[in-house]
Write a structure and sequence with these properties.
The complex is a heterodimer. By secondary structure, chain A is of the alpha/beta class. Chain A contains 9 helices and 11 strands. In chain A, the strands form 2 sheets. In chain A, strands 5-1-2-6-7-8-9-10-11 form a 9-stranded mixed beta sheet. Chain B is an alpha/beta fold. Chain B contains 35 helices and 16 strands. In chain B, helix 9 crosses helix 12 and helix 27 crosses helix 28. The longest helix of chain B has 35 residues. The chains are: A alpha/beta, B alpha/beta.
Chain lengths: 265, 841
Amino acid sequence: MTRDYLETKGRIFDIQRYSIHDGKGIRTICFLKGCVLRCKWCCNPESQEYGIQKMQVNGKTKIIGQDVTVAQVMETVEKDRPYYVRSGGGLTLSGGESLCQPEFARDLLHGAKAVGINTAMESMGCAKWEVIEEILPYLDHYLMDIKHMDGEKHKRFTGRDNGLMLENAKKIAASGRTKLSIRVPVIPTFNDKPEEIRAIAAFADRLSGVEDIYLLPYHRLGQDKYQGLGRVYELPQILPPEPTYMERLKGEVERSTKLKCHIGG
Amino acid sequence: MAKYYTQEIQKTDRIPKLVADLYAKMPEIESARARLITESYKATEDKPIVMRRALAFAHILDNIPIVIREGELVAGSSTIAPRGCQTYPEFSYKWLEEEFDTVAVRKADPFYIAEQTKQELAEADAYWEGKTTSELATSLMAPEARKAIEHNIFTPGNYFYNGVGHVTVQYERVLAQGYRGIIEQVREELEKCSPGDADYCTRSQFLQAVIISCEAVIRYANRYADLAQREAAACTDSARRQELMQIAANCRQVPEHGAGSFWEACQSFWFVQQLLQLESSGHSISPGRFDQYMYPYYKKDLEEGRLTREAAQELIDCIWVKLNDLNKCRDAASAEGFAGYSLFQNLIVGGQDRDGCDVTNDLSFMCITASKHVFLPQPSLSIRVWNKSPHELLLKAADLTRTGIGLPAYYNDEVIIPSLLSRGLTLEDAREYNIIGCVEPQKAGKTEGWHDAAFYNMCRPLELVFSNGWDKGEKISIETGRVEDMTSFEEFYDAYKKQMDYNISLLVNADNAIDVAHATRCPLPFLSCMVDDCIKRGKTVQEGGAVYNFTGPQGFGIANMADSLYAIKKLVFEEKKVTLGEYKRALAMNFGQGFDAVSAGEIVTGILREMEKNGMTVEEDQVAGMITAVMNAQLPAEEKKRYEELLEMIEQVPKFGNDNEEVDMFARDVAHTYTRPLLRFRNPRGGQFQAGLYPVSANVPLGAQTGATPDGRLAHTPVADGVSPSAGKDVHGPTAAANSVSKLDHGIASNGTLFNQKFHPTALSGEKGLENFVALIRSYFDQKGSHMQFNVVDRETLLDAQAHPEKYAHLVVRVAGYSALFTTLSKSLQDDIIRRTEQGL
């Protein structure tokens, strides 16, 4: 049996072990570099460019981005196998948008599945359907971001219209080939009105097989990175939503749909 | 029907009141015991020591003031003041006299002491000059060992100045037969003694001493019965009167006879637990498998409808409060090492029986609930985890962990049982193990483990390699050659092993001297009657009466030594970026980061010794000037820069705790330089030495006695705790740290290893948080880790508690092997806890 997929190269900017807030169990997240969107609130601005960058971190220059093979990533992923076995965890791809490196993303997931490790991917689904279709056989859980139902507003805050992503969401759900969950970053001034959240929830509710929706409250932990990259943070004035407000949104979702709504990953 | 009841039982109003009363005042030192034991000793000088001990114990129990505290359901207090302590001059006393005026204001574990008490203690103490265990131990010790202690290579301070404790006795036997039953068995043994037997005198004296001790305990319980009756008669509240009447009835029945109800069993347990501590000044007297030996009484009462679960829970809660009523005053230095007024009374739930079946029961859950209700550091609650532990029990334990109390500690049967087998325990005994004190496993009622026998600082022998056996201007160890002449890492590492071996042999010498001193001057007949095979062998545990005998001194600084030796291997011998001579000077200069007063003092001491040798004298006032001069001395800019480069190079070398196979396997080898040589040695009780790898909280004060180390650690800062990575050096999260630690050989450290992890509360939030947390423990244990414990509290909370201690009187944190009230810890220890890598964000 050939294992060519282990040699596929890609560009990552971090591997984070013991992640317990994204997907089931204790997981290792591999962050792929490069993104199609430019969300103004992005907490990983260093993920957006595909090119290797320099970022100032605590007064030191850090190189962001590294070219690695699937086999190299798997070496780290393997280290926490006992934790995946006990917790139902595994590998999660994140970014950036993993689909910007379609072969690498597919082969990473393949690499994990081939050795019995559960897989998940955080993604907006912003790619040609053929790309997504190739990935699905190796993906146990698709954690799909939907940020807004209004295409125009979506474009204003992220740089792109949402049409392709919503279309892909429907196709993924219809394929029945992976568990699909919807995640919504709740960003004040962008999508935090009850009707905006309800609209996303209503869409998610119509997707077959989708049972869970996650509301991820906006946080500012990525703000310093903009300065480190010599960029300007465009949303300095907004504050993280209050826990009570998040509860209210959760209530709105659960009253208007049959989804189970969670706050946070 | 489910096998056990897992629901949360509510706490009653009584419990918070008992806790509030207990912590209303600073604990106080009382003089009654010291006065009484001195009186008795003066009157028994013609008798054998074991008899004198029994007569003194009886004299104390017949005369010490007694009290029943407001609202308590289980009686028995060693002091009138809540959380007060008695003193034990037969072990040592001078340190306390020296601290009379400072003990109430010292940083760690202060105690109030009244002027009259000082006077009474001083009067009693006058008798003890030359008669204590610590004085005898000193004269028994080899001069080299005394020198090593003086230079802080290791410290056997615990048993040097105090009783040994560190035992779990046969509680189940007292619960079933009472002391009357034990007395009868001893009488039978006594009848078998024939005057012509070679050991007639010692055996018959010991057996009689046991009878005297047990009779005294029965009389003591009856004093409580009388007091309860008197108080009942005067009580106007009818509910309380009923309780006092029941306490009186209980104390008439137990511990003289077997317990007939769960309440009586609680009372009987308590007298054993309390009076063991009044006989000797030992700590870590551990209740062990409380959920097992108490269960038959609970089950019977429950089945017969005489007890509700709520009432049983309240009784357990009351015992938990009382375990915090017992207290002990240690000398200032030891108090730093054992900070938090802790008595390390380890109580363990879950696990398997002698046949290898899981024995989790209702009480296992109720014990965890009790710690949540009472929310105090004692007992040191532990839980046994094995492949068949019920998931519900682990979730319940994790739910307690998440409160931030630092309890319970988790222990892995799958490592500990084989480890005990390798030390000669039978399979049945090994399966029934419990934990003593911090992390030390043993079989209850059969073992004198001498766990916690000394702190051995693994960093100091490395300093001796660099100094070729010299310290502060004195030759204190063997010569292993000038480091400047060493040409390979093997040669350097070999020198370290030789320094380790030599100093380990001195440690053994010191421990054995103290061991003999305890057997000679403080045999304990009461304790011994509850440990097999003392009665049959006719001698105390101190004289080798126990079935299993060990001495377990603990090494610490593994992470520092692993990182240090690895850095030298890489930077000096592989990459050749720095020479050993340069490294030596960098360490002596504290990497150019300046000298504190301690370092300056040490340097000046060295200079003075040299001058003295050459016949030069220095005036006292000149010395202070020399110290200031050393502290203010500036290094040439170039040299300082070079040290900064060196620190940067060290920073780049991989460190233990990051799941790096090469470094971790190297650390495993370094730990063996302590654990393996120890196994060669024997103690005077006929047992073996076995290593532990845990520091209590001594990594801070003992770090303060350690110069800069090659891992870049600056002089006098804390060393790593237990088997945990150096603070802040594990940067890949809890799974990576746990994987690294699991690569050490936990089985060979059969006296226990200790792994601390600190979590932010978000890591445990929700049901999913608990599940993942349990999975983390399970996975570490799958990889053959032995012990795990957790601090769950956020950094902001700790900083705020430091700034406003008054707001956080009850904030409990896990220090090392035990939980303590954060605000009672010294500033430096508080800082250390805050600094430990915060995981899980």
